[in-house]
Structures are given as C-alpha cells and as structure tokens.
Specification:
CATH class: Alpha Beta
Oligomer: single chain
Protein name: Carbon-nitrogen hydrolase family protein
Keywords: Hydrolase
Number of strands: 17
Structural class: alpha+beta
Largest sheet: 7 strands, mixed
Strand content: 25-35%
Shape: globular
Order of helices and strands: EHEHHEEEEEEEEHEHEEEEEEHH
Number of domains: 1
Pfam families: CN_hydrolase
GO molecular function: hydrolase activity, acting on carbon-nitrogen (but not peptide) bonds, in linear amides
CATH superfamily: Carbon-nitrogen hydrolase
CATH topology: Nitrilase/N-carbamoyl-D-aminoacid amidohydrolase
CATH architecture: 4-Layer Sandwich
Organism: Azoarcus taiwanensis
Distance between the termini: 6 Å
C-alpha cells in the first residue's frame, strides 16, 4: 500500500487557544476576537479548539445547547465569521443532535471563505480516564462518529480529528496522504503533560505532514484545568510554534516544499507494505 505526494498549495495557518467557560455568549466573543486577530495576521485557515463554545462543570450542559445539523447559533457563528474574514474556518467542535436520546455528536464543522460548509467530522474515539478523583467518560453524553474526513482547502488537503483521536494512528493512515492534520482538543492537564507533545510530533513524523492542534489551555471557571500548548508541528516533527496556556493565537507557514523535501529524502510513505 503506498501514498502519493499531495500537491499542497501552502499558506499561513493559525490555531486559536481558549479557556472557555459555561456561558456561550462570552465564549463566542473571545473566539470572534481571536479569529479576527489570526485573519488580520494573514492566516488563510484558522482552527478553533474543541468545545470552544462551552466548557462546564455539568457535562450535560453541552447537551442542553445541542443544535440540529444546519440550524443554530453556533453554526451561524462559524459561517458568518468565515465569510466576514474570507478564511477557511475550522469550528473546533459543536454539539449536534445525535441519534441516541440525550446525547450529542461532538462535531467539527469547516466553513469556506464564502461561509458555506465544506466538511463535517464527528469525533470517533471517546475519551475515558479514571485516576483517583479525576474521572472522565465522554460516552455518557456523546455518540461516536464512524467516518474519516478530509477536505481540500486553500493551503492543501486537510485531515480532521479531535482530541482523543490523537491516540489512534490508524485513523490518520486511513486519511491517505494529507498536507495538514488538525487536532482541536481539550486535553486534560494530567494526560497532556505526559503525552500531548509526544503524540503530536509522532503523528507529524509518521504521516510526513504538518499537524496543527488548537487547544483549551488553562483553569476554567468549573475548576477543570486543560493542558493547552496549542502548537504547529512540521513534517520532520519540529515544533514551529506553541502557546503554553491562556487565550491567544499560534500561527505558522505551511510550506509545500518542506513536505516534498521530507517525503523525498525519507520516502517512508512509499515504503509501506501493510
């Protein structure tokens, strides 16, 4: 099984880091301000973190604000913001109505420069963790997706994933050859400190592409602490930009020549046999 090189276009990309709270309105104001900052800095593709619109101590709060596919405040926000700035906007995750009662799909939505949706990805792998008093079980409120999603953008071909997906390399192999992998996240402080950078750099190295991970980063009003460290990693595994904590923008340049050089000098993708 082989992968062919992708004809990347290249360009400026940016990840937004947030410390979202339980109220949607203020979160959208922060997101709008940071996306505008990224766009003004020249970013052609901007990505928001997982749960950009809400992080609450009540895990069912996201169920209460879920939207039907194609209709709702959060989806309108993404469309209008992308159109206003003429950018490709990757909407972190939005809680959409699931087939199962009382649950949501944790969904990444992508809008093009005209505001129209170009891709939807429903998070496949649901986080579960238990250590002492720290416990998470996304399956209690989230219904998993089952489809691998890529799309073509102004900067090249992009593969979509969310947070816990990062631990499952088979997902990224199933994308085929891409120029950029996105990983909007809300990694916990515990797991992020141990594994975040290692996993992001590994995904970039083994897929020989750029990886950009916009994250939640800091202490939230609920008391939850997320790891942050939003970053951009190049195809050789080098970290091009990183923000440790607090809200802000991380930006960098996706260079097609860098992808081509790495794949030419170390043609691991062409050497695959399984």
């Amino acid at each position: 099984m082989t992968q062919q090189a992708v004809n990347a276009v290249g360009g400026q990309i940016a990840a937004v880091q947030m410390v979202s709270g339980p109220d949607v309105g203020p979160n959208l104001e922060v997101a709008a301000r940071l996306v505008a900052e990224a766009a003004e800095g020249g970013a052609q593709l901007v990505a928001l973190p997982e749960y950009f619109a809400i992080i609450s101590g009540d895990e069912r709060a996201k169920v209460a604000i879920r939207e039907r596919d194609g209709v709702g405040r959060l989806q309108d926000f993404l469309s209008e913001t992308a159109s206003r700035h003429g950018i490709w906007l990757v909407g972190g995750t939005v809680p959409l109505v699931a087939e199962a009662d009382g649950k949501v799909r944790n969904t990444t939505l992508v809008c093009g420069p005209d505001g129209k949706r170009v891709a939807r990805y429903d998070k496949i792998h649901l986080f579960g963790f238990s250590r002492g008093q720290e416990r998470y079980d996304e399956a209690e409120t989230i219904e998993p997706g089952d489809s691998v999603v890529t799309f073509d953008s102004a900067v090249g071909r992009v593969g979509l994933s969310v947070c816990y997906d990062l631990r499952f390399p088979e997902l990224y192999r199933a994308m085929g050859a891409v120029d950029l992998i996105l990983v909007p996240s809300a990694f916990t402080y515990t797991t992020g400190k141990a594994h975040w950078e290692i996993l992001l750099r590994t995904r970039a190295i083994e897929n020989q592409c750029y990886v950009m991970a916009p994250a939640q980063g800091g202490r939230h009003p609920s008391g939850r602490v997320t790891w942050g460290h939003s970053m951009i990693v190049d195809p050789w595994g080098e970290i091009l930009a990183c923000r440790d904590e607090g809200e802000g923008v991380v930006a960098g340049l996706l260079e097609p020549s860098r992808i081509a050089a790495v794949r030419e000098s170390l043609p691991a993708l062409r050497h695959r046999r399984l």
